[in-house]
Amino acid sequence: MNTGRGHNLTWRHRGIALLVFLMFAAAIVRLYTVQIRDHEKFVREAAITRQGAVNIPAPRGAVLDATGYPLATSIDTWDVYIDRVQWGYQPAAAREAAQALGAFFGLNPDDLLRLGMEARGGDVLVQRQMDYARGLSLRTADLYGVRLEPSQVRVYPEGDIAGQLLGFVGRDGKGLWGVEADFDHYLRGKDGILSTERDALGRPIAFSARHERAAVGGGEVQLTIDRFVQAIAERALEDAMKKYHARSGQIILMDPHTGAVLAMASRPSIRLGAVNLDDPKLPELVRGRPITDLYEPGSVMKILTTAMAIDQDLVTPDSTYNDTGSVEVSKYRILNWDFSANGTTTVRKYLQKSLNTGSVWLGQKIGPDRFYDYVKAFGLGESTHVGLSGEAEGTYRTPNDPNWYAVDLATNSYGQGLATTPLAMLTAVNSMANKGMLMRPYVVSKIVTESDVRTFEPVRVRQVVSPQAADTMMGLLHDVVDGVEFHGAQVPGYQVAGKTGTTLLSIPTGYDLDSTIASFAGFIPAQDPKVSVLIKIDQPAGGLNLGGQVAAPVFATVAEQVMKYYAIAPAAPQKNLVRAP
User: Fold this and answer.
1) DSSP codes, 56-121
2) pLDDT over 70 for what percent of the chain?
């Protein structure tokens, strides 16, 4: 009996010991969790409950133009709140504060009192982003239960220009699109924190400890965009949209020698001063069409096709073919855009008259394999890697595709049946002014943060055609504009090189025979280009719909103003060149 009882006591003691051990082990685990693993988490929670931590927003970095002028910057403001807990605890003091707050804002004190006393779920916002100086005067008044939190508002010193490219900052301080979104991790900085000990009602405890971690300001992002050139492009595009009743349009200006984007305008566009984040049309307004939208470049593609043939020594500017007005390829009959037949025609004349038969002739000389090798080398089937999100890649079929036909080579040679973005097309054309070297386009030149300065230099992608072939093409493109009487792209006093393009609008069932895309790509001054320009006007109406009628005159307007801005004097008085009406 005694032995059995002793045995039971032994197991009972062991059970108690095990229980004590488990409790001790649980305490050790909890101490490890609280003091080591989740220490920072509980410090933050303690700061919120006992110290009333206040977030100090970091100043967002500015977005600068090429000259260092701010296109987007932030200014300090205040968000004004009513502390519902404090007003509920002392109604008499709350009524007095409501009277003063109402007088300050021109609001009904009774409404404010009711709002602060009846609201549920925390503080009540009275005004967001109040002027900083005005907020200081309210803060000095030290109204009971009224709290001012530091905040910021994003401002745009140049107004609404480059709205799609610059982007916008949401209420949470994050970029929503454009540069503001793509470079948000550089711009937003690191928030600070200010904490003071408070009692259970949220009231500051006199002479208590005060802890502050300073905010770290965001970095500056400097663009290659010149605000004056951007304004010129946007005004010209706006005027063209109205004049030609167009549905949309884009204008890009670049330095052809470096790839720096000087301006990138698009319509329709967002107004940064009147952004409605609930607008169902917002995605269309903020879309960066110069890099996201694919289009068939039309006769601007003849620049590249001709350069291929010259680079292969297949033709010279004076080589000829017999233009009968049409050519048959795989039972398809291809006509010139103006239905003309020109007989013996040189390469120079084919470009000046933009004859489809001429580009088909060159495409057949080049051959499909070499033609598509060049298309790839010009970068039309890939993104340009400009550094902005959402960039589309071009599309085209090659002989390796089972759906490719011989007629594809013919139509691709004059810019139909393949698609690219406006930026990629201008980038490819730029190689003509850069000795055949393809340059990578870029819109950010420098990023300056607290700890680093990052500079972006021009990037040489590849040599696409020989320097000799590129120089020959520049001469031909000069002949296309200044060698044709009344050409719409002529600029008095300056030599211009370029090529128009007109293509039917591509739709799922084929082409819309009543809608065109009118474009022009060119350089000024032709002998040593300062800028390259792509004009693209989508679905112009009102009787004018060709590249020469619509896009070329817009180029002339933009080019002339840019020459004045850069203080590039006319080379010499130009012979009597009168633009067609």
Assistant:
1) EPPPPPPEE-TTS-EEEEEEEEEEEEE-HHHHHH-HHHHHHHHHHHHHHHT--HHHHHHHHHH--S
2) 85
**331 shares its domain with 359:** yes
Same domain, 180 and 317: no
CB neighbour burial string for 438-462, b if at least 16 within 10 angstroms, e if fewer: bbbbbbbbbbbbeeeeeebeeeebe
pTM comes to 0.83
Flag whether 18 is in a domain.
no
Instruction: Please confirm whether the linkage preceding 268 is cis (ω < 30° from 0).
Output: yes
Count of domains observed in the chain = 2
Residues 69 and 231 sit within 8 Å (Cβ to Cβ) = no
What confidence tens digit (pLDDT) does each residue in 100-122 have? Answer: 998 999 999 888 888 888 766 57
CB 482 within 8 A of CB 516: no
Single-letter amino acid code for the residue at 295:
Y
Are residues 348 and 454 both part of a single domain? Answer: yes
Does 348 fall in a domain? yes
- Strand residue runs (E) in 171-306: 175-177, 192-196, 210-213, 220-223, 248-254, 261-267
Round to whole Å and give the CA distance between 495 and 569. 12
Helix axes 356-366, 406-413, angle to 10 degrees: 130
Q: At what angle do helices 301-311 and 356-366 cross, to 10 degrees?
A: 40
Count Cβ atoms below 10 Å from residue 24 Cβ, excluding itself.
10
Peptide bond into 525 cis (omega under 30): yes
Q: Do residues 242 and 133 both lie within one domain?
A: no
User: Does residue 474 contact residue 433 with C-beta atoms inside 8 Å?
Assistant: yes
Give the position of tokens 């904490």: 195
For 251-298, write each residue's pLDDT tens digit.
999 999 999 999 999 999 999 988 999 899 999 999 999 999 999 999
The boundaries of the domain holding residue 505 are: 227-270+287-565
**Closest among 43, 72, 48, 46 to 60, alpha carbons compared:** 72
CATH number, residue 555: 3.40.710.10
